[in-house]
Every structure is written in C-alpha cells, then in structure tokens.
Amino acid sequence: xxxxxxxxxxxxxxxxxxxxxxxxxxxxxxxxxxxxxxxxxxxxxxxxxxxxxxxxxxxxxxxxxxxxxxxxxxxxxxxxxxxxxxxxxxxxxxxxxxxxxxxxxxxxxxxxxxxxxxxxxxxxxxxxxxxxxxxxxxxxxxxxxxxxxxxxxxxxxxxxxxxxxxxxxxx
Length: 171
Hints:
By secondary structure, the protein is of the alpha/beta class. The protein has two domains: 4-15 and 63-170, HAD superfamily/HAD-like (Rossmann fold); 16-53, no CATH class. The chain has seven helices and six strands; from the N terminus they run E-H-H-H-H-E-H-E-E-H-E-E-H. The chain has a six-stranded parallel sheet with strand order 3-2-1-4-5-6. Helix 5 links the parallel strand 2 (80-86) and strand 3 (113-116). The longest helix has 13 residues, at 16-28. The model has no long low-confidence stretch (mean pLDDT 95). One of its GO terms (biological process) is pyrimidine deoxyribonucleotide catabolic process. GO terms for molecular function: 5'-nucleotidase activity.
C-alpha cells in the first residue's frame, strides 16, 4: 500500500514570509529583515499581521517556495499526497488556496486538498510542516520545513529540511 504524505501549504509550498515582507513594505515603505524574525511567530514578527492575513488576495498571490512545484510533483508520482492546511481561521483563504493550488500545482486534484481548523485528526505516514504544533501530535515520520519561526525547535524525532531538493533526496 502506498504511503500517505501530508504536505502543509503555508511555509512549505507557499512563501508566506516573503508575502508578508512584501505587504509590510507596501503599507509602510519599510523592508523587514527575515533574519530578525528567527524564533518569532509570524503574528509577532509582522506589525500588520492581522490586517494583511485577512486581506483579500493575500493567499491567492503568495509566491511559491523555490523548487516546490517539481518537488510536489515528484512526491505526487511516488506517494499518496494530501495537501493539508489549517485554513478555516481565515475564511477568505479557502477559495484563494484552492485556486492557488490549481494554478501552480494542477496535478493535485481537489480530492487531495484538506482545509481544516486543526491538523490533529488528519492521519498519514509522513508529515511535512513548518509548525512544531502540527508535528507534535503526529504519529508518523515528522519532517520540519525550516522557516524563521522554527529555527530553534529541534526535536530528536523530527528530520529538518531546508528546501524541496532535500525532500526529494530523502523521500
């Protein structure tokens, strides 16, 4: 039986940090340095987080993480892939996320997309996520995708990766 791989969207496929940096610059003219955000959640790192994340188009126009299209295609050809995103907190994100996936990852079927409130009831063999809170409950293989907010989280049972080329190498 084919292994099931759960892939997070924000911070794994979608470069939300770059999107926040771009939006903060549009609002304030100040370009925030990503290195100053190490160990800080996005909601604390970006002064206008709430208004930006709830704005129309935020999720629809987010850039892709480098090599994620090729990497996800590779996984999709080899495993049973589910895209799992904690999206219901931001209701405008639901359609935007589905449309964004359809544009950049057309090989992912709507049947492979799970938009939820929490990921603790979603089961699989491997989870790729950038938030420790999602990996903490997971019973399978845990892969943490490096983002500024998680650089100081190092759990022995997690495998840390810094990009999609590493995912292809290990899976």
